[in-house]
Amino acid sequence: MPKPAPARRVTAADIAQAVGVSRATVGFVLNNTPGQTISEGTRTRVREAAARLGYRPNKAATALAGGRSRIVLLMLPDWPADFSMRTYLEEASRALDEAGYSLVTQTHSAARMARPLWEALNPDVVVGWARFEDQDVASMRAAGITRIVPGPDAQVPLDEAPGVGDGARLQVDHLYDLGHRRLAFAAAADPRIADLVGARASAAQDRAVIRGAELRDVRAVGDAACSAAEAVRAWHEAGVTGIVAYNDEVAAALVGAAVRAGLRVPQDLAVIGHDDSPLAALFVPSLSSVRMDAVRAGRFLAEVALREAEGRPLSPLRYEPDTRLVVRESTAAGAAAGIDEAGADDA
Amino acid sequence: MPKPAPARRVTAADIAQAVGVSRATVGFVLNNTPGQTISEGTRTRVREAAARLGYRPNKAATALAGGRSRIVLLMLPDWPADFSMRTYLEEASRALDEAGYSLVTQTHSAARMARPLWEALNPDVVVGWARFEDQDVASMRAAGITRIVPGPDAQVPLDEAPGVGDGARLQVDHLYDLGHRRLAFAAAADPRIADLVGARASAAQDRAVIRGAELRDVRAVGDAACSAAEAVRAWHEAGVTGIVAYNDEVAAALVGAAVRAGLRVPQDLAVIGHDDSPLAALFVPSLSSVRMDAVRAGRFLAEVALREAEGRPLSPLRYEPDTRLVVRESTAAGAAAGIDEAGADDA
DNA sequence: CTGCGGAACTAGCACGCGCAAGCAGCTCAG
DNA sequence: CTGAGCTGCTTGCGCGTGCTAGTTCCGCAG
């Protein structure tokens, strides 16, 4: 053997030399550049040589020359990437990959980096779940990023954004239909997700008003066991019989606290969670919850990112979430005793 | 106003023009290029102009010219990014940012992408938790990536890698010290994490042999409630009194099944989880678990990636994990009744 | 024989930056 | 007075690709 390989990457010039054409031709063939007439024979020979040599275009050069990196950066809030989130991301990633884009996600940590990821990656689009802070927007602008979703002047508040409040409305409806009229909302104490928690809480409150139930008390339940116990005690004393929890973890904490306090779930206190995490089914008693169609949400994200990347309008696009109730023991029907007298005043 | 801004990104040439020096000088100043003598006055003026104009170097151009992207790609297995993982990633990200690198993570999905992320990002280093498949290594090679950790011919098996088996050993020791002699390992059914599950299982088995306990039955517990019930029944019939669970979720499923089957936890069956997820403290009974120091692990990852990126040797680096037992109700001391006769034959 | 138009390419610039090489001006030993 | 050595810069190439503006060849009508 004279030398196994030059350990140098294969470039378009190598293909050009191997085939005996110019580098431009190679580019035209491999990119299917419209407006160029290249004979079928040449096309074939170029493609074969590319495959044979294992050509991978240098993305840094592509990005520099073309001005597009074909990267979509998704900034996620700092909450757990549970299993439905993973499905969501996987689907979005798959859909974008099909369109020739790569999805990169980062969970936005509180500590501000010296070099934010959008600066390092040069993404074509930055997508977030909530509006970005002005500081971040300015940083993106300086990094040459013009396509930001949601735009810096998005007008829709988070709790009215499609999909965000649907789960909360289902939760309220479910408890109402079981006869509960005094409800409370159990928020998560984690400040990092305050936006989403607040959005779900206000969606729940609005729904309660519409249905004619009472949902005033919004209380944060932290990781500390005592806070859950305290909340359960206060709610029970106030005559609350149904609790809308921000997510399954909060619901679990409350159910645990209720059981420890000697309350029966769901007879004395019904609790419904959100997200249908695996934990919900395992808990004793098992937790009712709300599940969202992560695949559909992922596809929606991909579509939004693609349209933005290619400068197509987002407007005709509408997200139709598929949110479903998952009823389990923690809100079992027929078990809500002693609350009939409270809810007899309306149809 | 004649026109607010050309909407064009600020380049080094703009700074050069503003200051009245050549573009090279700008580069030398901003990169602190060694071996160049630039007067302090010029340095200051360049830096001021850069700040004033909001200069952000184009990373695509930097990567192309310098051959380094200063990106570290971490490929994670497809398991949940729970809260300790997030701490881990955050710390690693912070440490790398300090050194001028960006950390990008991707959870390796089963579906193979048309364009893997390492191709799109051109990272200097790709780091994984387990050895990469040959196919992936080949793909990285073709994309011009030479620095891969662990190397394609890493010799240390996963269960002997520092940190991987420590938790399992602690779990076994804990149950042993409580008097349990017949143990079982509860694996997770998810095939995506089979490697890690297997590594923990074999570490647990080895430890049990060393201590003189019996741990033979390794059984997968899936999401379906029936599989947990079935496993609990089989183990209880076989006289197993202590269960080492792969993680807290599996532990929760087992404890739930045991309670439903009328067994007392921990009196009839002690269960210890792994990872100390928030769920562990909330469950009723609360779950004993094992917690690892995610901050330390994150720093270790960053250090490994940095050394590899800069071509420094990894060898003198040693990971000293800080793995600790968290004892809760599911293995409460003194509650293990009726097993004393089984464990009287050794010191 | 000339002109023309289309097919099938090629030459070469631009992208923004890192960095090697070079060059003017000055100082100072010999 | 020369030239070696230093400071403080500038010129310019190269990275690999996209893409515009050609150029060559060739068939065919006039």
Automatic annotation (TrEMBL), chains A, B:
It comes from the Bacteria. InterPro entries: HTH_LacI, LacI/GalR-like_sensor, Lambda_DNA-bd_dom_sf, Peripla_BP_I. GO terms for molecular function: DNA-binding transcription factor activity; transcription cis-regulatory region binding. Gene3D superfamilies: 3.40.50.2300, lambda repressor-like DNA-binding domains. Pfam families: LacI (PF00356), Peripla_BP_3 (PF13377). The keyword Transcription applies. The keyword Transcription regulation applies. This is LacI family transcriptional regulator.
